[in-house]
């Protein structure tokens, strides 16, 4: 029989969303994150679930299938108990069990609940387990390790797993090997041609399968190689690598100590250097130190105070510890506001663009005014518009005592020594690859440091102190002969240069620093933002950055057969049974630009280690985020993957986007590549909003694909009803998840589900009314013109919009509302769930076919979007058109009248006079009022508070309006 995988029939969306969320929230505690910076790694639990879901066969018993699947992933009750690594505590236990159940074990007397003396360990565990099992799944995870942090299911689970699947495995590796041999007659190979940070190949190898990973960008390939061979290399390899990292750091630190460039000669060593950019004020001609805030440490009330110095033509900077309240307030203002210089003398504000000398051309372009730095520039030239200045040093004594000091003459002499030492070595170090020599190629992200600072080479993003320190470390790394030691130390450089560059930020009040001041990494976001006041971390505090390698449970044996390459995805010739990819999106991170920041530090060393890898990011070949080139690249890539998989192989494409045009293009891309969608699941994977706060996580759609072997045809008019049915089926399935566990999806996630459902229908046909889909995909279209695929997907979104009814409203009431009323009510749901993105409201309006909706918005600011309250509407649009003459609009105005007059009769009387259909639609009115009143459960809807009070009064008045109703003619 053909293999029907579990993932084609069902997938535990809510549980996997919760597990993915937990993993994401671990931040730096995630297994691969500590290896090096990359953007958008998918959670390992999600990858594991996909692989198991593809290899585990579905039986005729769906309930048993799900039980076994959860046991394999240790997401069942037994597995969760095995993963539990934190005690519930007597207080929590007492809240979950009855006094009778705890009789003889818990003492409730006194202020605290405590164990009664003499209770055995077994009895304690039994009561704790009883309490643990009563927690929700989400709450259980607070006391548990992640599935990857234990060695898999327990003995009892293995008996059940093996009996159901007819296997004889004792661990995950054995199980996945047995399952793959049953399907493919060999151990399955899992491939990923957009391997990025390495989640997919890493998890495949950890599960005992053959792993293939490739990426056009060598930085991504290097991270993936290191994930499998260093993190997955076992304790001995990790010990060896850390020893090499330590040796390289110690050699650099020793040299720095010998030079005396971080010591004051009185027993103190520098703990942090703070620099700022200086620019001349057009008002006074004085050089003004630039910083948005001059607060250095909140805890110790350390501030920088500026004193005008006309003799030098600038400002002296005094560092004050124990600043007064007035000094703290003044320091908080800084000399930069909204990217503009604020003159300390006159208060005049000058944009940084004008300071730089940027100007507009007659043709509407921009000419940037800064001098472009040359390779040999490592500090600004005296004539440059922007200068850099050391303004504070934090020192620490051998006893650990910290001092924040103003800059003295000795500090400036040490700065000159640093510069001289670097200049002596600069040319040789660039030639040998100890420091970068790579040019910054202009691009979406990379043009920012060019235009804002004039920096043209990657080493310009680093201060001489940083270049000297990082260069000393790399000097030792290049002497290592062992490949693991060399790669492990090169990888640690990625962490070091992320932490220590002129893009890093000084934070004066982060909780984790205790308010003493701490540095946040260069890539706090997906950009290259030159900072006006930046820190430099001395060598002593860089130890944990240079010496870093995450580890995992040493019981796990990685499959030895894995291939990692830096190669164009269209050139891949290695066949895989399962291709799992997370492709670049139409608004993708510009990986090929940002990764050059890291690549510049080891570009000259990689070819000596991996001779068959690409030597650079190949920006010309990179899959760009939009346009015809993007689509052609994607078709070529997925057609190549389809050729390199067996007829019974599978692909899973992970995709997150809320634009119908992009989804239409994706559908045509997959169709043109010879693939068909067989299942689609939406999993919450992002942490932009938290489940615990009542908000919804953003979903990632998993598209499960097979080769399209059939040559069946369909007409467009036949497709529409099939898409309608499939969208409804998809949304019903998602609704069941929401209602059966906990809210997992927002409106945008349901739209993703609608997109995926439409693709499932579209891609199942080889021919759609004789149309040349490849031609439709690539041809240029006029503005506003839509492809046949996009029209069908628009239809799917429209079906979803009409089919999804806000909680609390009946289908009968919903059917009586027009498109504007539906849009408004669904918009209120968005706001209640914490969705404030403009794009979400725009997509919602498009789904209802409402082209002009902005008059409904009470706030249109970025990430603050919401619809108006009755008070904000006032009389606007009342009685005019579909919206103004609707029942809901009249109802909102009646609430407004009742509120401003503080008399419910005003609103009640207006509604009865304005609506001749008052009696026939009275039940609709009450249902709408009840829906509006549900807003009271959401504390962040404070702007509705007063009006909801009168909404409730109006509801009561209409509810009791029976007598008149019975006599009304």
From TrEMBL:
Residues 10-67 form the DUF1156 domain. It holds the Pfam family DUF1156. GO terms for biological process: methylation. Gene3D superfamilies: Vaccinia Virus protein VP39. Keywords: Methyltransferase, Transferase. One of its GO terms (molecular function) is methyltransferase activity. It comes from the Bacteria. InterPro entries: Antiphage_assoc, DUF1156, SAM-dependent_MTases_sf. This is DNA methylase.
């Amino acid at each position: 029989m053909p293999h029907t995988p579990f993932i084609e029939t069902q997938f535990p969306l809510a549980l996997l969303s919760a597990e993915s969320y937990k993993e994401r929230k671990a931040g730096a505690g995630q297994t691969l994150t500590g290896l090096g910076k990359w953007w958008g790694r998918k959670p390992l639990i999600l990858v594991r679930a996909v692989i198991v879901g593809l290899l585990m066969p579905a039986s005729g018993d769906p309930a048993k299938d799900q039980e076994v699947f959860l046991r394999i992933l240790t997401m069942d009750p037994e597995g969760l108990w095995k993963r539990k690594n934190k005690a519930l505590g007597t207080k929590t236990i007492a809240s979950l069990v009855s006094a009778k159940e705890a009789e003889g074990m818990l003492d409730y007397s006194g202020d605290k609940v405590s164990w009664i003396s003499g209770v055995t360990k077994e009895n304690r565990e039994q009561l704790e387990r009883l309490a643990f099992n009563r927690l929700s799944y989400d709450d259980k995870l607070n006391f548990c390790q992640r599935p990857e942090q234990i060695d898999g299911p327990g003995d009892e689970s293995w008996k059940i797993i093996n009996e159901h699947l007819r296997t004889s495995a004792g661990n995950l590796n054995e199980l996945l090997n047995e399952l793959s041999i049953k399907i493919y007659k060999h151990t399955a190979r899992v491939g990923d041609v957009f391997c990025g940070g390495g989640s997919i190949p890493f998890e495949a190898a950890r599960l005992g399968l053959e792993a293939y990973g490739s990426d056009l960008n060598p930085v991504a390939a290097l991270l993936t190689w290191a994930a499998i061979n260093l993190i997955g290399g076992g304790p001995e390899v990790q010990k060896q690598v850390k020893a090499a990292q330590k040796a390289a750091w110690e050699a650099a630190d020793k040299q720095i100590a010998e030079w005396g460039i971080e010591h004051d000669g009185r027993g103190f060593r520098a703990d942090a250097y703070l620099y700022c950019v200086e620019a001349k004020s057009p008002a006074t001609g004085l050089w003004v130190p630039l910083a948005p805030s001059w607060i250095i440490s909140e805890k110790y009330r350390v501030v920088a105070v500026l004193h005008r110095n006309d003799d030098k033509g600038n400002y002296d900077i005094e560092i004050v510890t124990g600043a007064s309240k007035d000094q703290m307030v003044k320091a908080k203002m800084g000399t930069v506001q909204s990217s503009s210089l604020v003159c300390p003398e006159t208060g005049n504000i000058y944009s940084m663009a004008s300071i730089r000398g940027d100007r507009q051309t007659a043709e509407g372009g921009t000419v940037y005014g800064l001098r472009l730095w040359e390779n040999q520039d490592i500090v600004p030239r005296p004539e440059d518009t922007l200068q850099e200045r050391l303004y504070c040093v934090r020192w620490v004594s051998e006893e650990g005592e910290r001092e924040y000091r103003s800059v003295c003459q000795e500090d400036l002499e040490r700065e000159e020594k640093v510069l001289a030492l670097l200049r002596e070595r600069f040319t040789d170090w660039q030639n040998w690859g100890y420091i970068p020599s790579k040019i910054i190629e202009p691009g979406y992200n990379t043009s920012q440091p060019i235009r804002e600072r004039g920096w043209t080479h990657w080493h310009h993003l680093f201060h001489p102190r940083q270049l000297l320190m990082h260069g000393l470390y790399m000097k030792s790394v290049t002497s290592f002969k062992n490949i693991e030691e060399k790669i492990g130390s090169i990888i640690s450089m990625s962490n070091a240069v992320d932490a220590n560059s002129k893009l890093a930020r000084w934070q004066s009040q982060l909780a984790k620093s205790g308010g003493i001041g701490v540095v946040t990494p260069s890539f706090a976001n997906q950009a290259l933002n030159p900072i006006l006041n930046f820190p430099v971390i001395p060598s002593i505090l860089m130890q944990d950055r240079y010496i870093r390698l995450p580890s995992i449970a040493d019981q796990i044996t990685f499959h030895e057969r894995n291939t990692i390459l830096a190669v164009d995805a269209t050139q891949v010739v290695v066949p895989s049974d399962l291709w799992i990819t997370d492709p670049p999106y139409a608004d993708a991170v510009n990986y090929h630009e940002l990764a050059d920041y890291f690549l510049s530090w080891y570009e000259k060393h990689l070819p000596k280690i991996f001779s068959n890898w690409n030597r650079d990011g190949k920006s010309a070949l990179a899959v760009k985020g939009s346009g015809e080139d993007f689509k052609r690249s994607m078709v070529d890539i997925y057609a190549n993957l389809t050729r390199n998989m067996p007829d019974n192989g599978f692909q899973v494409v992970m995709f997150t986007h809320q634009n119908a045009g992009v989804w239409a293009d994706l559908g045509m891309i997959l169709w043109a590549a010879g693939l068909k969608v067989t299942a689609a699941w939406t999993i919450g994977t992002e942490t932009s909003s938290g489940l615990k706060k009542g908000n919804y996580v953003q979903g990632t759609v998993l598209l499960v694909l097979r080769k399209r072997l059939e040559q069946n045809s369909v007409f467009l008019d036949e497709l529409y009803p099939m898409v309608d049915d499939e969208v409804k089926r998809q949304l019903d399935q998602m609704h069941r998840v929401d209602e059966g566990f906990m809210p997992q999806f927002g409106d945008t996630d349901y739209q993703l589900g609608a997109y995926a459902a439409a693709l499932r229908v579209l891609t199942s046909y080889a021919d759609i009314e004789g149309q040349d889909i490849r031609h439709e995909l690539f041809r240029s279209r006029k503005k506003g013109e839509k492809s046949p695929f996009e029209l069908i997907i628009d239809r799917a979104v429209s079906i979803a919009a009409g089919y999804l009814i806000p909680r609390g409203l009946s289908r009968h009431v919903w059917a009586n509302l027009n498109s504007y009323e539906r849009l408004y009510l669904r918009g209120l749901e968005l706001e209640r769930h914490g969705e404030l993105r403009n794009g979400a409201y725009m997509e919602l309006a498009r789904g209802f076919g409402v082209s002009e909706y902005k008059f409904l918005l009470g706030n249109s600011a970025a990430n603050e979007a919401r619809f108006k309250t009755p008070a904000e509407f006032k009389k606007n649009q009342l009685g005019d058109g579909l919206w103004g003459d609707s029942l809901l609009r009249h109802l909102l105005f009646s609430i407004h009248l009742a509120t401003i007059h503080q008399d419910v009769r005003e609103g009640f009387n207006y509604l009865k006079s304005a609506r001749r259909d008052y009696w026939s639609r009275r039940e609709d009115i009450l249902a709408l009022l009840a829906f509006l009143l549900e807003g009271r459960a959401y504390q962040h809807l404070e702007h509705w508070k007063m009006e909801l009070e009168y909404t409730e009064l109006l509801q009561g008045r209409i509810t009791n309006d029976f007598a008149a109703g019975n006599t009304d003619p």
